[in-house]
Every structure is written in structure tokens, then in C-alpha cells.
Amino acid sequence: SQQGEEDPQALSIQEGENATMNCSYKTSINNLQWYRQNSGRGLVHLILIRSNEREKHSGRLRVTLDTSKKSSSLLITASRAADTASYFCATGTGANSKLTFGKGITLSVRP
Amino acid sequence: GAVVSQHPSWVICKSGTSVKIECRSLDFQATTMFWYRQFPKQSLMLMATSNEGSKATYEQGVEKDKFLINHASLTLSTLTVTSAHPEDSSFYICSAPQTGALNTEAFFGQGTRLTVV
């Protein structure tokens, strides 16, 4: 079953703008992860935030986690056309990184 | 970072035949691997958890006799789609976490595009 629900489902922005994607989940988690998938390809791990963390940065990425609201956001700053992809949040519960994925957000960055 | 290799990247097979997909952790040991299935424009759905040296754990609604999983070594898990039908056409992806590590990323294979004709 799916745990994460992202919104919006599709996002189209101009190159240079910031992209914000949100994810909500239902159960307690150990961590929340964001992945990127180019069309027809495997998943690339972007960032992991633990349940006791509130914010994390990695390059142009900023992730927040609000466990009281069971939600997370992914911000991509200064977007590039190469950021065009599908983005998924995934929640980790229990051991061994078993992940439950959200439905995904399709991001289009116009050059 | 760690590398998970999945093979083949795509396969076309006739209805009724079986197809084997391999998932290898190249530079680390993985006592557990996960198999996911993704239909076009949809999310990844966990099919089963592959456990080295023991039986796989299947998610509800996934036929274990249809999707045979073997995890015979610490670096290799295989998924065999038996008697494949067109509705089995999908994108199959494996992942492997580093053994014993909690709160770490999972490393994904490149995925296998299966088309059953």
C-alpha cells in the first residue's frame, strides 16, 4: 500500500525558479527519503531526513520534515532544465530500509 | 556510493514463457533486497522482500508462485516471472540497503523493462 502522497502531482516551472514539492504520510516513520526518476530509468537517491531531524540541505536541495503534521517538503532552488524528472517521497519504517513510495510528482523545467 | 546492478535492462518475451531478472550488489553485501514493480506513470509498488538464505516475504496480492524469488548469496537476488502474460508487462526494479544499517538510503538497480507479447 502507498504511504506517501505528494502534491502537486505535476509541476511546470521556468528555469531559474524554485520548485517546491510536498509529501504527506500516515504512519510513524524512521526516515523519509526523496528520490528522482528520469523517464524509464532507475531511481536516484536525493536526500534522507531522519525522524528526529527537521531540516536538511544538500546542494540546491532543501528538505523539511514535520512529524507532527506527518509531512515533508522538497525545495529545489534555481531549477535547471536537467531537473525535469519524476520525484518520489518514500518513507522508511522498521529495519533494512523497506520503503513505501508516494505517487510521485512530475516536474517539468522549461528552458 | 554503493552500486546495485540489474540485468537485463529490457526484455521482450512471448506469452507463456518465463523470464529471470538478476539484481546484484557490486561492492557491498545485502542480506535483504527488495523487488518493486512500476506501471507507466505510476509509483513503485513493493512486491516482495528477498532474504538471503531463506524464503522471500511477499506483499499482499502478489502471487509467490508467479514471481519466484531466490536470494542464494549475499550479493545476488533473482526474480523469475513464470508463465508471463501481457499483464505482467511492467518496469521491475530492485533495491538493496547496506546490511545492518538503519536510516540509510537504499540503492536501486537500473530497472528492467519487461514486455510480454
What features would you describe in this structure?
The complex is a heterodimer of chains A (111) and B (117). Chain A has 111 residues and is mostly beta strands. Chain A has no helices and 11 strands. In chain A, the strands form 2 sheets. In chain A, strands 2, 4, 5, 9, 10 and 11 form a 6-stranded mixed sheet that branches. Chain A has a 5-stranded antiparallel sheet with strand order 1-3-8-7-6, with no helix packed on it. Chain A is globular, with a radius of gyration of 13 Å. The model of chain A has no long low-confidence stretch (mean pLDDT 90). By secondary structure, chain B is mainly beta. Chain B contains no helices and 11 strands. In chain B, strand 5 (44-51) and strand 6 (57-58) form a beta hairpin. Classes of the chains: A mainly beta (111), B mainly beta (117).
Question: Topology of this protein?
Answer:
The complex is a heterodimer of chains A (111) and B (117).
Chain A: E1 5-7, E2 10-14, E3 19-24, E4 31-37, E5 43-50, E6 55-58, E7 61-66, E8 71-76, E9 85-92, E10 99-101, E11 105-110
Parallel strand pairs in A: 2-11
Antiparallel strand pairs in A: 1-3, 3-8, 4-5, 4-9, 6-7, 7-8, 9-10, 9-11
Chain B: E1 4-7, E2 10-13, E3 19-25, E4 32-38, E5 44-51, E6 57-58, E7 67-73, E8 76-81, E9 90-96, E10 107-108, E11 112-116
Parallel strand pairs in B: 2-11
Antiparallel strand pairs in B: 1-3, 3-8, 4-5, 4-9, 5-6, 7-8, 9-10, 9-11
